[in-house]
Design brief:
Number of strands: 3
Radius of gyration: 16 Å
Mean pLDDT: 90
Strand order of the largest sheet: 1-3-2
């Protein structure tokens, strides 16, 4: 049982392990539900098909939910605790960058 739980946790982290998916999570966490067209404007440097694949990965991992309204599909963050978690990671990364810069100066 514990092994299965660890595998599921790893699957969630793996789903987050892409810059576009992280940007989607942050976009949904900051302003709530968004349609795919809004997400494309905010996060997708590529095409809509690529964004749809990233959204499908996040949905399969249980991190986002979707609902259809007419021709539009709206996504929402299902796991709001990700936002402080990603903030903590960002703080750690910034700290590391600062330490590396200081080390280069000396």
């Amino acid at each position: 049982m514990a092994s299965h739980l660890m595998e599921m946790k790893a699957a969630v982290l793996k789903a987050l392990a892409h810059p576009t998916r992280l940007a989607v999570v942050e976009a949904l966490g900051g302003q709530g539900e968004k349609c795919v067209c809004e997400l494309f404007d905010v996060v997708a440097p590529g095409d809509r098909t690529t964004l749809s694949k990233h959204l499908a990965i996040l949905k399969a991992a249980g991190l986002v939910t979707d609902r259809k309204e007419g021709l539009k599909v709206f996504y929402a963050l299902r796991c709001p605790c990700l936002i402080p978690f990603l903030g903590c990671i960002e703080q750690t990364v910034r700290q590391r960058v600062d330490e590396e810069r200081k080390a280069l100066r000396t």
